Amino acid sequence: MTVDDAVTRIAAELGGDIDGALDDVGVPAYLLDRDGVVRWQNAKATALVGKHGRRDFFSLIAPEDRERVRTEFAKKVTRTRLVTDFEAVILAPSGKRVPVEIHSVAMEEGDRMVAVFGVIDIGDARPGSSRARSTELTPRQLEVLHALAEGRSTAQIAASAHLSQETVRNHVRRLLRALGVHSRLAAVAEARRRGLID
User: Fold this and answer.
1) pLDDT reported for residue 133
2) Contact predicate 130/195, CB 8 Å
3) What are the contacts of 106-110 at 24+ separation with CB within 8 A?
4) pLDDT, tens digit, 9 for 90 and up, residues 104-159
5) 51 Cβ neighbours under 8 A, 6+ residues apart
6) Domains in the chain, start-ordered, CATH in brackets?
7) What is the edge-to-edge ordering of all strands in the sheet holding 97-109?
């Protein structure tokens, strides 16, 4: 039985249409097999990356992020970390680079990982929003930036965002790099200068 069949069978046993429900989810969502091949994607994912059924997921990732994304995927295959949240840049069919945050979870059958289900957070694209004006920052980086502007510590940010402190530190490092600054205070000042925060 394939992963697609197993998910559909379980949903049917519960009395639901998993394919229809997942296709209507308002964010890009996908299902990868153990080899990292796209086995399913919803309409939002197709709008973001084009139709990529039975294609290597990593080919959708910007070259500089592929190794890190493969590492996060490998954590699920080896079952060392079943849930991961990380930032990456996806390549749209037009060639446009889209900063995203990928949230993914291993799907297990017995004692082995059989698939990875994930959603892609491309942020708030409403006209006039700070996120719409800030294509270089991911949604999580903006969240961390606002927390830094409020004077929160790493521990406080981690607790409120339900992340580890090391993950918050990684977000801060990437935020500093994206803004071209070397300190948290400079990040807040630069973000205010750019109009990313009030």
Assistant:
1) 41
2) yes
3) 106/76, 106/77, 106/79, 106/82, 107/3, 107/7, 107/31, 108/79, 108/82, 109/6
4) 898 888 888 889 999 898 854 333 334 334 446 888 888 899 999 999 999 999 99
5) 41
6) 3-119 (3.30.450.20), 130-194 (1.10.10.10)
7) 38-41, 29-33, 112-121, 97-109, 83-91
